Amino acid sequence: MISFNENTQIFQLDTKKTSYCFGVYNDGFLMHLYWGEKLPVMGEFEQYILVQTKALSPQDNGLGGWSTNVARMEYPTHGGADLRRPAFQCTFDDGSAVPRLRYAGHKITDGKAVLNGMPCVYSEDGDKVQSLEIELVDKRKDLHVFLNYSVFEDYDVITRSVRVENKGPKCKIDACLSASVDLPEGRDFDFMHLDGCWARERHPQRTPIFCGTQTVDMKNGASGHYHNPFVCFPEHNADEDHGRVYSLGLLWSGEFVGGVQMDSYDTMRVFIGVNDFGFGYTLETGETFQSPEAALIYSNNGIGGMSRLWHKLTRERICRGKFRDIERYALINNWEATYFNFTVEKLSAIADRAKDIGLDLLVLDDGWFGIRNDDHTGLGDWFVNREKLPEGLDGLASEINKRGMKFGLWFEPEMISPKGCQLYEKHPDWALHINGLEGTLGRFQLTLDLSRDDVCDYIIEAVSNILNSANIEYVKWDMNRYMTEVGSDKLPQERQCEVKYRYMLGLYRVLETLTARFPNVLFESCASGGGRFDLGMLYYMPQTWSSDDTDAVERLYIQHGTSICYPYSSMGAHVSVCPNHQVGRVTPLKMRGNVALPGQFGFELDLAKMTEEELTEAKRQVEVYKEFGEVFHRGDLYRIDDPMTSDFASMNFVSEDKKRVVLFRHVIATHPSCRFKYTKLKGLEPEAIYVCRENGKQYSGAMLMNIGIAWNHKRDYESEMFVFEKK
Ligand code: DGJ
Q1: Is 82 considered catalytic here?
Q2: Which atom of ligand 1 is nearest to the CA of 547?
Q3: Which of 341, 546, 548, 600 to mutate to test the pocket of ligand 1 (most atoms within 8 A of CB)?
Q4: Per-residue pLDDT for 574 more than 60?
């Protein structure tokens, strides 16, 4: 899987279908050579290097006629001849900022160690995994930079992270990206990423790469609604099913930067890592810095092929715990049903109907603690509000349990309300703040300073006390504002630029402790909807509330974009009431169900107000979910009609054993005398016979994939689900 040729000094990292090569050249420069289709036999790269370096005037010392400015560098730095965006930058004690990193050795080992205190792709017994550690040294300052690679052969994934050990005088890291790869022929590729906003998250954007730099980033302490820590680079002509695509995802929930720089020679430098804007990390002698981990996936089966690799990796080697492999709960959440205005009676009435239609769990959302009748007060006071819940959480949980259902609870533990909050009266300094500067409120709240151990310990104990106080089997972990005026009293002046990075380490410690302490509790993350939908969060909590927009049509866009990287098993998706609370749209209950079904399904409306007819349909949806959840959550996704560019959205799932296929198709907008439309399925066995459950007819896989299923749509929001079972 990982080989090193002593003669050529070339490293080759092979997965099942891909190869990734780089070599040591001229006095220790690490040059990138290749990433793409597997190279079964290694030839010589000399010709390739010549082309790379021909167009230069020699600038670097001792490089024998070539310059790092045009060479493809494996982990570039600034201050020598390379004028492009560096992956690593630091300032030394003498004020100089020119790291000169040269190869000093390497180690190849079987398996992969976990990253201490941070999310990472992990291996399990029997996995074909090897790791490589390259040591780079700046001899002048005795700074050691370790590039860590792991190859997950069967997953077609390579992971990368960077550790910095300072054995010399004090220095400050200014940038330390997790991965940077210099690839040829950038002019033939596009830059694709997932952008959005609150309630409009992760809409895919795709633009041709131009000469210059294109980046997406977040600067406010969270991976964010606006951009997502995932970037990919399809060839211009790559579509859902064909063509080459490079992609990089970051296992990090804080601010990040990802993008591409194309130089004048068509080399594209693609990169991802912790945002270097406003970042700085001081290393005293003997101290270490660890970057988050990036995962790298190449596919020549189009964007769909790439997505399926990300989905499998995320489901099986990023998500953890008991809930990774079992079907999770179909739930009812009271948020859109009652908002803050709930009573035990209202919740009990909802629970009665929830039980009737077969739901597993009731979640009590915001408002059950401290003084919390709206979003102005109370965050931080994690003790039950007895006025609202006279029998406490225990009493309410018992009420729900009596009906044979489980009980779940909402928290927003990273926050504090400056008004109506005992915690703030005692510890105003526990909020992130800069002394002498008024803090900006977001949703009337401030962010707790999770770079402090005492604050993290408080959160761990406060949440644990509640979880121990009642039979709580699910937690919704919310986070509803970005960071501003970031500063911490516990860190010295020169370390204030570390606060946001240290905050994430604090949060990860809290989550690691709580999820280990409560292994039978299902955790779902949330950040005003999908404001922190990232691979880092999924390491701790296997599902994320995708968006506060529960409208079926809006969700088609959001879930489509999300699925470019993330599996449906990670997307919380609920049926809500009409007119929809976010956009006022009225869609049929059937469509709302079909849109939510492939995700982690539930309802977010007042079931007690539904008609008998609606309850019958809701019950049918729960039954469908229980029967096919496994297909949606462990099967392969094939996107068919793209809602971003057409009036339709359709997709099919193929179960892991390839025996069951589920097709969903939705009409977003119809037109009079519309064109004939056929939905052509994907990923089937051409020669197999499939029986359609809805009409009892038999079709070959080839027919379903080449002719498709005719679509006689007449109305907006028509929505259908078909099941095909292999004979
Ligand atoms: C934002 C979440 O996204 C919502 O689902 C809900 O939990 C509210 N917060 C509660 O304040």
Answers
A1: no
A2: 3
A3: 548
A4: yes
pLDDT, tens digit (0-9, with 9 covering 90-100), for 270-322:
999 999 999 999 999 999 999 999 999 999 999 999 999 999 999 999 999 99
Q: At what angle do helices 344-356 and 392-402 cross, to 10 degrees?
A: 30
Cα–Cα distance, 516 to 539 (Å, whole number): 12
Nearest to 564 by CA among 253, 205, 177, 186: 205
Of 60, 182, 478, 549, the catalytic one is 478
pTM: 0.98
d(CA 400, CA 653): 34
Pocket of ligand 1 (CB under 6 A): 335, 365-366, 410, 478, 480, 526, 528-529, 545, 548
Name the residue with the closest Cα to ligand 1, atom 9: 528
> pLDDT tens digits, residue range 420-452?
999 999 999 999 999 999 999 999 999 999 999
Measured by CA distance, the residue closest to atom 2 of ligand 1 is 528
Q: Which helix (H) or strand (E) holds 130?
A: strand 129-138
Alpha carbon distance 405, 157 (integer Å): 40
Alpha-carbon distance of 452 to 662, in angstroms, equals: 48
Say whether 14 is catalytic.
no
Q: How far is the CA of 243 from the centre of ligand 1 (A)?
A: 40
Using the atom order of ligand 1, give the atom closest to the CA of residue 548. 3
Catalytic residue selected from 366, 548, 549, 551: 548
List the domains of the chain with CATH numbers.
2-317 (2.70.98.60), 331-417+449-484+507-633 (3.20.20.70), 641-726 (2.60.40.1180)
DSSP helix, strand, coil percent of the chain (3-state; round to 5): 25, 30, 45
Please report the atom of ligand 1 found closest to the CA of residue 529. 3
Answer yes or no: are the C-beta atoms of 176 and 185 closer than 8 Å. Answer: no
Number of C-beta neighbours around residue 42 at 10 A: 15
Q: Is the peptide bond before 204 cis (omega within 30 degrees of 0)?
A: no
Q: What is the CA radius of gyration of the chain?
A: 26
98 pLDDT exceeds 80? yes
